[in-house]
Amino acid sequence: MSERRITMADVARKAGVSSTTASFALAGRTDMRISDAARARVLEAAEELGYRPNVTARSLRTKSTQTIGLVSDRITTTPFAGDVIRGAMEAARERDNLLFITEAGGDSDAESSLVHALLDRQVDALIYASMFTRYVTPPKELFGRRVVLLNCLAPGFAAPSVVPDEVEAGRDAARALLAAGHTEGIWAIGGHQALPATPEGIIAGNERMRGLEEVLREGGARLEGVVECDWGTPDGHREVSALLAQGHRPRALVCLNDRLSFGAYQALGEAGLSVPGDVSVISFDDQDIASVLRPALTTVRLPHYQLGRLAVELTLRSGPLEAVVHRVPMPLQERASVGAPATG
Amino acid sequence: MSERRITMADVARKAGVSSTTASFALAGRTDMRISDAARARVLEAAEELGYRPNVTARSLRTKSTQTIGLVSDRITTTPFAGDVIRGAMEAARERDNLLFITEAGGDSDAESSLVHALLDRQVDALIYASMFTRYVTPPKELFGRRVVLLNCLAPGFAAPSVVPDEVEAGRDAARALLAAGHTEGIWAIGGHQALPATPEGIIAGNERMRGLEEVLREGGARLEGVVECDWGTPDGHREVSALLAQGHRPRALVCLNDRLSFGAYQALGEAGLSVPGDVSVISFDDQDIASVLRPALTTVRLPHYQLGRLAVELTLRSGPLEAVVHRVPMPLQERASVGAPATG
DNA sequence: CCCACTTGCTAATCCGATTTAACAAGCTGG
DNA sequence: CCAGCTTGTTAAATCGGATTAGCAAGTGGG
């Protein structure tokens, strides 16, 4: 691209030294003796010429490209993706690394081909990322490489995983409800997804419910019912409408994600019930919409930025990677949808 | 990263030829004579050894890294970003290119530093992208390089731009309203942003309004009023509530983006008005929320995927880049929020 | 005065490809 | 029978750095 770049040879020539000296001076290495004068001349020449090292050439020798490859299923198409990528990018940038972002769309051939493309470019490490937390089987090209699993788990695959701490998130939701005084009329919408309806729910649903039930029980409260359904906005609308139509009068709704909450809001609104006056709503994810609903939604946030950041930080640590599961805390976003239970 | 890779020298040795022959055979080049037998042996050896070329080494010689760098302001944090990136990635992938994604967060020092990092890695081209359509002044490091401007314009900077065709989008919105029979009681919410309230609106607002007014006029209709305001959900809610409170009874609302529409829905709902029975709503962007509102929102879609794709395709075309503005069509998403005007 | 040891620097090699220049062997036509 | 062409192949240079091995000049001790 465009005119010839200044090379180290140019710098060496201008400073009147060999390229060896220039290389050591520029790298700031002290394991070879260079006079202060020579060092200064090299640095000055580099400065004047606007010298920038050619990372491509360097990595041919050093085997390090300061580059990390990220392979995802369809991470760019989810509303969260941006934060994951941003977290990863910023962590990479702090250590002078750059990120190749790729997406395989769930196609395992595409996945292999992308991993190859990344490997051909000599990336220092690979991050294998999933749109939602789930179990995966990474492509065989990844075996034996420096890999971090982002938002997914692969038992038997020797690599660290970075996932949200869903169980604790469930506990936090329960604590928030208890703190507001709720002990009765609590319904969970979305359920465990034990018989997975929405793949997204397999891990999230189970773990959130586990933490929720655990703390509710300890707090002397309990779930009046659990509605098992898919996790879309229309599902929330339909199921909550049905619940009300059956004569139930919930005091608090734990929606397993924000889209369900939005559907629940629609159903409650149509039934003339107010949030949180008549019914409190708490949920998980903290999508954009959560803060814009009326009333703003109290929800336990998926820590996407932190997830991306930690995944990159792990790859950048020196030494081999340990196959440990890192659980990232999910902070509770307290807004306006949880209130004291309606009396009577 | 991990064990030694197979090099071309290995392949040549196994095939019993020189690395020159191996190189030409693998590249499929015919400008040097190679016997069919030798060619076959090389290919077979490569296959058996699982040889993959080292792109880093190759590009040192060829000056082409098959890599494109994308620098954005804060593209990852917007709900649209995913599609832009996906379009860019897929276009790159089709031509065996990979994408470095970076984000400067609007900081021009960070921008320069990122461009350098990209240039140091010898990217073949750069894409300078903005979150929303606006005028930009690219960092000086970009001058003289192979650059495409994505979702932004920089008069005086010799590079092609790829932007949405906002004027035509405004025309389409007007046509949709006319087709449904609307000629009176049409209000625009969000306005021209001529005195920019929301930076996002500077170009989008002006051009959408221009197209809208043009076609409305030609169709014998006109705007009853234009509300100038910011472009967030609360603004839509507030302004439409105010409009109704003042006694106005709009038949159709043209909201300048989907967030405004969502706010308008909230206000209309609170006033007991139905969409589209009492009031039709049409808007721009087609964010995720548009299809999930009740009723689903008719909106003119921002072609993010196409934008990303075209930007990459331009960089991949051979020859110098022409400083042309490419306007990408914005398709109308007809859903359920536009109906015949209320009678009486 | 000579040997050993610093000090300061450079020549040469390597990394893994691509590409240029050249060369050996076989064939053909005069 | 030999010059000249074709055919098939390879040695060597190159890209831009990092690294290893080694060398010349100066210093100090005996």
Automatic annotation (TrEMBL), chains A, B:
Cross-referenced PROSITE patterns: HTH_LACI_2
PANTHER family: HTH-TYPE TRANSCRIPTIONAL REPRESSOR PURR-RELATED, LACI-RELATED TRANSCRIPTIONAL REPRESSOR
InterPro entries given in the database record: HTH_LacI (IPR000843), Lambda_DNA-bd_dom_sf (IPR010982), Peripla_BP/Lac1_sug-bd_dom (IPR001761), Peripla_BP_I (IPR028082)
Domain HTH lacI-type residue range list: 6-62
Protein name: Substrate-binding domain-containing protein
GO MF, one example: DNA-binding transcription factor activity
Lineage of origin: Bacteria, Bacillati, Actinomycetota, Actinomycetes, Kitasatosporales
Tree of life domain: Bacteria
Listed CDD domains: HTH_LacI, PBP1_sucrose_transcription_regulator
Keywords carried by this UniProt record: DNA-binding, Repressor, Transcription, Transcription regulation
